[in-house]
Write a structure and sequence with these properties.
Layout: H1 2-5, E1 11-16, E2 18-22, E3 26-32, E4 43-54, E5 62-67, E6 70-78, E7 81-85, E8 90-93, E9 98-102, E10 107-113, H2 115-120, E11 122-132, E12 143-147, E13 154-156, E14 162-168, E15 170-171, E16 174-175, E17 184-191, E18 196-200, E19 206-213, E20 215-218, E21 223-226, E22 229-233, E23 238-242, E24 251-258, E25 266-268, E26 271-273, H3 276-287
Antiparallel strand pairs: 1-22, 2-3, 3-4, 4-11, 5-10, 6-9, 6-11, 7-8, 7-10, 9-12, 13-14, 14-17, 15-16, 17-24, 18-23, 19-22, 19-24, 20-21, 20-23, 25-26
């Protein structure tokens, strides 16, 4: 039993992200879904926005659009984004901030670079992850959580070579501050050259690593993965993350994990349900105005 408890997950597959245009025309690097890899239950989508340097008047985002049946997690690395929705939530995400929106029964959402970046230009880099909801939660009341960078727990390894921001789950003795409807792990790791750190991960969870800067060595076998690659991890209870001593730069990566829902997925754009009939109903409800609309009575950003 002890051997199972300490079993380190090895790499079983590596998927390279493709570039795709989204929203009003912004480019994303997307490893999930991609050709030959469209399911990572309970994760539906992983988009890396940028990094991109916009000139004045160039920045674009995702104007008013609907969601039903899942959660969106937006995590900013650089730049600023305005968020508004039809439930009356609004705010500005700055570097290191997280917005966690549970769309549930239905919401209309807008995500745009702030007026300052749209007018003057600037650098934007961030992530959006879609997390599926169980059938029992798909029509729950929409919920919105926003955490400033300072409120997100972080920790550093004893040797100071590895640092983690714990958006969901737990690592290096700290636990996330956010409440997840579908329990997942979402962590941002920085590994300096020479870093070698192992973190626990429940055996029931499927695990993934997305390297977005530099290169990381994963597992006891030290399988190398570089920027823009999503790594599917095998079975085990621990994840070993390393950055080679000879590396000229730190590795940056997201660690994602979750217990699969094992439920049918019916998907049509921003609607994710369990049956085709539920998708038809979602479209009907949206067109009938049941998701509401964004009321813009104030300026943010």
């Amino acid at each position: 039993m002890n051997g199972d408890m300490n079993r380190v997950r090895e790499v079983v597959r590596i998927v390279t992200a493709h570039r795709q245009r989204e929203g009003a025309g912004f480019m994303v690097r997307r490893p999930l879904p991609s050709n030959g890899f469209d399911a990572a239950d309970p994760f539906l989508l992983l988009d890396e926005m940028g990094p991109v340097d916009y000139g004045p008047g160039e920045a674009t985002g995702a104007p008013d659009h609907p969601h039903r049946g899942f959660e969106t997690v937006t995590y900013m690395i650089e730049g600023e984004f305005e968020h508004e929705d039809s439930a009356g939530h609004r705010g500005t995400l700055k570097p290191g901030d997280v917005q966690w929106m549970t769309a549930g029964a239905g919401i209309v959402h807008s995500e745009m670079p702030t007026a300052r970046i749209r007018d003057a230009g600037g650098r934007v880099h961030g992530f959006q992850v879609w997390v599926n909801l169980a059938a029992r939660d798909k029509l729950m009341r929409p919920r919105y959580q926003e955490l400033a960078a300072a409120a997100i727990p972080s920790a550093t390894s004893e040797d100071g070579l590895a640092r983690v921001k714990v958006i969901a789950g737990a690592a290096l003795g700290v636990t996330a501050a956010i409440a997840t409807r579908t329990p997942i792990v979402f962590q941002d790791w920085e590994l300096k050259p020479g870093a070698d750190v192992t973190t626990r991960l429940s055996a029931e969870q499927h695990g993934y690593v997305y390297v977005y800067e530099g290169a990381a060595s994963l597992g006891d076998e030290a399988t190398l993965s570089s920027g823009g690659q999503l790594v599917i991890l095998g079975a085990g209870c621990a994840v070993r993350l390393r950055c080679r001593m000879e590396a000229t730069a730190s590795a940056r990566l997201l660690l994602l994990a979750g217990v699969p829902l094992h439920e049918p997925v019916a998907r049509y754009g921003p609607f994710v349900m369990n049956t085709e009939e539920e998708l038809v109903q979602a479209v009907h409800d949206f067109r009938a105005g049941k998701f509401g609309e964004i009321t813009r009575s104030a300026t943010i950003g």
